[in-house]
Each structure stands twice: as C-alpha cells, then as structure tokens.
Amino acid sequence: MSIELPDQSARDQALDIGQSFIVQAPAGSGKTALLTLRYLRLLSVSEQPEQVLAITFTKKAASEMRERILQTLYWAQEINSSEDSPSGQFDQQRLAIGRDVLDKDKQNDWHLLKNPSRLRVQTIDSFCFYLASQLPVLSRIGGNPTVTEDVDQCFRDAIANTLKQLNESNHISADLERVQIHLDNDLSRLERLLKNLLYNRDQWLPYILEIGNSNDDARSYLQACLEELVSESIAEAQTGLRSFESAILELTNFALGNFKREEPSQYAQLSQFSAIPTDDSKDRLKWSFILNLFLTKEGDWRRIVNVRNGFPTGDKTNKDHHTLCSMRKQQFLELKDKLLEQDDLLESLNYVRLLPDSSTDNRQWEFLTALTRVLAQLSSELLLSFRHFRLIDYTQTGAAALAAIGNDSNPTDLALALDHKIQHILVDEFQDTSQLQLDILKQLTAGWETGDQRSLFLVGDAMQSCYGFRNANVGIYLNVQQNGLPNISIQPLLLNANFRSQAGIVDWLNQHFASAFPSEPNPSRGAVPYSHSVATKAADKNAGISSEIISYNNTERVTAREAEAKQVIAHVKQLRQQGKVVNESIAILVRSRGHLEYIVRELRDSNISWESNDIDRMGALQVIQDLLSLTKALLNPYDRLSWFAILRAPWLGLTTSDLHAIAQFGGDNSVWKKISHWHEIRNLSQNGTERLEQFVNNIAYSMEVRYRTPLRELIETTWSLLRGSAAIETNRETACVNLYFDLLTTHEYAGGLNNLEQFQELVFDSFIPAQQQNSIKDTEIPVQLLTMHKAKGLEFDHVIIPGLANRSRSDDKPLFAWHERLNSKGQARLFFAALSATGSEEDSLYTLLRHEKEHKTLLENTRLLYIAITRARRSAKLFATVGLSNKNQLLISPNSLLGRIWRELEREKNELNIVSLKSLIEATAQQKQVAKNKLPSPTPIRRFQTLQKLDDAELKHLAELNQQSDSEDHNSYEQESNLTARIGEIIHQELEDYTNSEEKKSYLNSLSEKRAYWSLQLLNVTDSKQELTDSLEMITESIQKTLGDEDLNWIFDNNQKECQSELSISSLHKGKIQNHVIDRTFIDEDNVRWIIDYKSSRPKGDESEFIRDQTNKHEEQLRRYKRLFEAMEDRTIKMAFVLTAIPKLVEIKSRQ
Q: Which of the residues in the chain have pLDDT under 50?
C-alpha cells in the first residue's frame, strides 16, 4: 500500500509534458527521480532521442541521471518478460513510462540500450564547448583548446601584455598610467586586482563595453538610477517606520531639543520633526539624526540611551523635568523591544545610511572611464593568451557558445539548426545558473512559440544556491520563478516531501531556518525565503541534531580549536560505539580546508580511518619532490640543483662527501657529463662508486631518448628503472605518484614542458587524491572529510560540522564594483563604481556596492549551512568555539555560520550545550605536555640499503640501447636535434598566434619583444651562447620572411572557410588510437580543402635539393592526413608544406 505524498499533485503535474515548469525542490525531495521520469516521458513522444536535451551542472549529476534512465529501461524490459509487477504508485508510474519508451525505441530502431550515447544528458560546460566547437572562428576559441579551471598562466600572460603598453605611445598607455597612479604605483597590487577581476569577467565585461561605447550616456544613466534608488529606498524605510511613527517622532524631538540646548550651533539646521523625513536632499540631515539615534555604529538597534544620545537623567532640582527624562527613557526601552523583532526594518534603515549622493564625482568618473578602457584591452589580451596556451576556462567556453549561436536579431545557422533539433530542454540545479548561461538558454528558446509542443523544465532549490564565487546568481532563479522567460509561460511548482532525513532533522530545520532565511524573495539581493519540508521517515528518538559550543578567553583561540577537534573525534567514537553505526557513513563538513588542520591530526593519532579530497597538497611529499627533480634533471642536463637532488634521492642516496666529490670534478661540465665518467672521479667512496655505476647505466637510456619520447613515458620508465616505487610507503604516496604522471601527460609539450616553473607550481598546488587513511578494519567505513561545497549533492547517515563560529575571510577590495538591482516595477538597473585612489576616502557608491556583495555573501552563508545539515539522514552534530567578552558574554559574529541561526539556538538554553574551555583544558594540557617532552629526531637520509639491481634480461636490453650513447658525437647530435625540435616548436607557435591575431601589423612589430621569451625556452636544450644567439636569429628571420611574403599571406587568413590551426584528429590503426595534429587547414573560395604543414629546417646546400629532401621526408605524413579527411568529407583536397627558412610553399601532387 503506497502512502499519498504531501506534494503528489505537484509531482503528477510535473509529468504534464505539454507545459513548462520551474520546480522548487528542497534537499531530499527526489528531484533526480522526477527529472528522470520527465525525460523518459518526453522520449516516449519524440521523433528522435536527440530532441530531448537535459543539462546538469556536474559530471556526477549527468552520470547519475543517465544511469537512472538506463536502469529504468532495463528494469522495464525485465518486468515485461516476467510475471512480477510493482505495487507502489511510483513504480507503477515508472514502469508505464519505461514501457512507452521501449515501444518507441522498437518502432523507430533507436537501440538506446545498445547505443546510450543518443541520450543527450550533458553538463552545461560540455554543452557550451560543443556549441563553441561547431563554429570555432565565430566563437573565437580557435583550434582545439583544453577546457580547464587552471588558467592562471593565461591570466598572468594577459596582464603582463597589457601592462607592457605602459611604455608604448598609444591610446591605452595614458589610461594605464592613470590607473597605476591611482593605486600609488603599486604594480603588484594592480596585477593582483586585475587577476581577481578576470575570474568574474562574464559579470562585468558587457557593462565595461557599454560604458566605453557611450560614456556620457552611461554617466547620465547612472545618475538617474541613483536618484531612483534613493527615492525607493527611503520610501521603503518610511513604510517600515510608519507603524512606530508617533513614538519615533516624540523621542526624536525630545533628543533634538536636548542637543539644541547643549550645542545650539551644531544643530541649528534641524527643526522639530513633524513627520518621517522624505527623499528630498534637504532631509538627508534629518535622516542622519534619526539613524544615529536608533542605530549603533555597528548597525544594530540601540538598546540603551544616555546623555550622549540626547537622553539626560534630568535636573533633580526640577521634578517635572526629571520625571519627563525618566519617562522618555522608559518609552525608548519599550519601543526598542518592539524594534528588535523588525529585522527587515533594521536592514532598510542601514541601507538608507549607506545611500550615496545622486551626483557623480568628476575625478572618480574620469578614473572609471580610464579603467573601463584598460579592462576592455585586458579582455582582448586574454583571448590571445588563451589561443597562445591552447587553454580556455569555463567562462570563456560559455561566451564562445553564446557567440556561436548569435542573438535574437541575428541568429547563426547553428542556432537555427538547434532550433529544429531540440524540442525539449530540462535543466537541473537551475539555482546555480549564471547570467551567461541564462543568455544561452534564452537564445536556444528564442524561436519557441505558444502551442508548438515544446517544453522547458527547470529544477532547482534556491535554498541550496552556494556558488556565487563561480558567478552563479540565485536571483535568476527567483526572477524566472516570478516572471518566466520570453515566449515561454512557466508554471512554478513546489515539492516539500523529504525522503532523506528522519523527521527529527526535518522539524529542526523548519524551526531554525524559517527565521534565518529572508521573509520575502528579492532577486536583486539574492534573498531566498525558506520552504518548509515534510518528512516521509519517522523520527528517530536516539538521533537528531545537537550542538556543542566551547567558550574561551581571547588568548586561548588555538587551544580551543584543538579541544574542539578532540570533541569531534570523541563524537565519532561515540557514534561507532553505538553498534550499527560501524556500517553507517560519517562525514565531517567544514567551511574551508583550513578548519581540518587539527581534526586530521586527531584522526591520525586516534587511528580512525578517513578519506578526503582536495584537503592536503601533494607538493609537500618527498616522493613528489624527487619525481619533480627527476623530471627537471632529464629535461635539462645543466640543472645542477635537480641533478644533485636525484643523486641524493632514495634510489641512489649518495652521501654528502660523495656529492662534494662529484661537484669538484669536471669543472663547469653538466652533472650528467661528470657522472658519466664516474670511474675518473677522485675521492668517491667505494659504496658511492658502486651505486653511481649502476645509476648511470640505468639512466643513460633516458638521457638518450629524452625529447624523442612522450614525457610521461620517459619519466615513468626512468622511475621504474631506478626502482622508485620501492621508496613508496603509503597508498597516499601511490595516489600522488599516479596523479603526477597524469599531470605530465596533460602538460607535455613536444616531449618536454612549455613552462617548467608553472608546472612545478601546479604540482605543489595540486591536492592529494581521495584515498583511505589509517585503515584498521576492512568492515569499517572511513570517515569522510569534505568542504560544505564539495558535500553538495551527497548524503550521509551522520554529519559533524565543526568551526561554525569562524568568520569568513574578507576579500580584497576590487578595482571595479557592480550590482544589478530590480526597481519597484521589476525593471533592471545597473550600478557601477571604481576603487578610490590610495589614501583617499572611499567613494560612497563603491561602499554601497560592496555592502550589496557582502549582504549576498551573508545570505549565501545561511544557505551553505542549510546544505551542510541537510546532508544528514539520521543525525547532525554542530560544534563551535566562541570567545568571551570582558563581561563573560559569548561573542558571536553575525558573519559566521553560527550567527545565522544563533537567535533560534539561543532560545533553546535548556538544550544548548555550552562547555567552557576550562572544563576541557586539563586533559588537553596533559596531552600537550607529553607532546612537548617528545623532542623531534633528526631526519635520516632515506636510501635503499642495497641498490635495487636490474635482472640479466633488463641489463642486456639496456646495454644494447645504451651502446649508441657512448660517443661524444652522438651526444652532440642529440643536443642538436633537441635544439632543432625546440626551434620548430617556437616557429609553429608564432605562426599559429599570427594567424589568430586580429592586429597582424602590430603583431609583426612586436616580434623583437618576444626574443626574451624564446630564450627561456631554448636555455633548456643548449648551454652555448653562440648557439642561442644563432637560434634566435634563425627564428626571427624565418618568421619575418614567411609572414612578410605576400604570396603566402592567404595561408594565414583566418577568414577562410572552416579554417583551423593545430587541428587535432584521432584515427584507429591496428587497434590502437593514433593522434595527429595538422598545422593548418581551411577551405578556399573554390571549395578545395587545403592541408598545410609547417617545416622549419634550414637548407645546408642547394635549395632545389633541400626541397626534394624535405618532400621525400614529409610526403607520406601529408598523404596520411589527406586520407583522414577523405574519410570525413567529399571534396577536392590539396596538400602542401611551408618551408619557413626559404620561405616557400611546396605542394604535394595527388597520385593518379
């Protein structure tokens, strides 16, 4: 017998595929199951499965949804072949829909179970990249870039190239100079602020371009918006004060009268109040007086008044006056008690206090104008940097996708094709949508009309929007919920059944968060009201939500955090001692990784198994430092520090005296050349000689094939030959070594690394992969350590949340602040301001906009805590360490997570567990004393007792491979080939950058500035100054000749049809995937496909003989490329290569 759900009608309505909906689905409400049913219902009426598109925000969510769809179809297929039939209402509904899809699948030969790739369930990022890659030129992504969050090197490059123009004489140099002076010539600060802005560029870039295009109009617009803001904000405050108007006026006039008697000159401009002040500028002083009277400097309601606030004790000799003063004070206290419940009014009054003057400051506006031009230039430089490094981030992917589909007035062919293909769209986690993603969704549905049998299904939970730092805007969800989308009528639905948590948890959430969330929605400010849930699971009397607060004096903060960690571990042990919980999941959730420092230490000391992800960084592990040294040494024989590091590593472990002997031998030769003559090194110990002989034999092959074999294969093979895995002691180290090899694969460039310093920084910043720690019992489920953001979408039996009183880190003041507000009529109004000059008073509008951002963050903090607690199925335990004031009162910051629910917690004084640190300090102090008495031991050299030797077969194979590396001539040839390869890479890169450049003349003029950058790349493969100079001259000459040849200009024209540079294509050969990179391809005006390869070799004799030699060497490579294209398209194909040293285009004729 199935139980009727409290929201069953909403769930049934959600399956009406003739309508579009936006569904509010709180935590645990089963939104994925609902999405899956809706998707299947749509499949059952579609002509093709590709007509239904489901968009999620994470790979995990996409994978889970696709898996549920397939599971339903497999299940329905099995039920059809058996006599069993489900009894529950949901399963019956699920079976009926599954059968309909299977019937449709059979009728149309879809074969979904054999070909599940036809199910279009994608992340928003993968869908955007798909759109952008369809039109790479129009979307400006070019080639085949890697999409990643790690684009710091692109940001640094773009900022450096922008700041370079300070020394130029162009339109942007004066603006840059103004910005630099504004920041007191603090260049490092300017770089940091620009980098921070780039992370959020999709939010400000459209506004920047608008200001730059129509400066005067923008200023007039801003001024009008300010006037409207002042008027509406004061009107809102007036409305809130009206209920208390009589008492407020009486108390205000009393205080004013006392002030005027004491200091008549200071208050001469103020007269008695007859009404609440208006929005007239003349009333600003009156507003200031009221606000200062009823509010503290910190923005709280004033709780007591005295003579300093205009409330004297009164003249005791004058009984009437003394009585009046006492009466007014009592009247104030009575009003205060009423005002303390008025949170919305308090917020309104604080907002009025922040309101700026509606006029705009000339100097500030001039700086803002200069800054907008600099930021526009920076965004252009960033596009070039993306192309240069062949990387883009998700923000750029979204912008490229939008460019690829055009706009309402000018849709692209791609947009029109998608309009025909896509009939239904489902979006998961809609509360985390950004403005850019919304614009894409609007464009995809721009051609939809009422009654055309298309539908949009948006699902999310505004109470779980927590990705503001990733540009998510919950206001979009609220706005669509209230107003729908253009051309689409969207009905709001509310789910309230909770299938996850037991009733005790759900009831606690309803009680504590109803008042913590705003009472009314406000899309502009991200204010989301609370939606109550109804538990479908009975209450668990032995579990629920409890809290523990450790109070401490201000000097005991660290000790308090240590004590909190011990209490957390004690709670874990207590849960596990309850019996069944050994097989139940426990998660410790924190606001930031730093909050886990003491907890991880206690987990290790207590031998409790745990798993983590994105907590510890792997750069601190010695095994990773050794691998990095090995990589640097193999790539550069002259990197003395790295070579001595690997001679010291466990696989060799030479002593300090042996290292000194090597350093003294061979003069300025490379370390590799020195140890290659190990038998000639004087003062080398016998043990060191034996170890070094075998080490040289092992590593000689690696030195031979470096830059001619994939980098991962080189390092992994060398590490294996050196028996590096024998130095690994934990699963943690194994996971990190595997990740290191993966990073090598990702960042390899022509057998090496394009930027070794940035790769090293990436390795040091990378997190240790998730793995189990301190595993004691196979049956014991490890404790999960997660940040609250990472825990979103997960659930656990028991949740522990420490550090709730910790304040969030304050951000740097941005160079440019912006805020979009909806006025009282629902119309969008944009506000923007710039950072004031160093040493100047902060601009009032800038202060207001920062307040708006801080307020949004505060509301998001509430939602983040809600997310954390709703992960729990059975119980949640909240921990906090709170300092005490001089009056022994708890000091709880309203900016902390604890502060968001403190009002409700405070009402539970009988249940609230507040523990003083003093009651915990004795045991903690004893343990600390024991730790102090244990002096650290010196760190010994880790090395193998006996060097791990290769077996006979391995030695024989290595001897054969190493024979060719014995001669100096071959070493010389090797260095020359490495140098030639690196020169070719540089020339290839510059030709690609030139092709993608929109300012080709200025690009050629800037070539001389790139010599320093080329030098850095060449220094890894040559130590000869003459070779370096000759190589730089060759690169410069080849590029200038090639790009200066008018007969070759058409090759680098990016207006050619379907033109691409560095195009990656894969093929299958003898069962193995082969990857190919084509330097240049396009279709000319005669519909001929051109395949062009760049060759940078130099002729050593007759030019015609050089051309024949190059043709014989590379002809088959081009023909192989041609065969790949012939398999994909039916058109004439021509092949050629550009010899950059001559320069000349050499066409390869097709065979008859």
A: 1, 930-940, 961-976
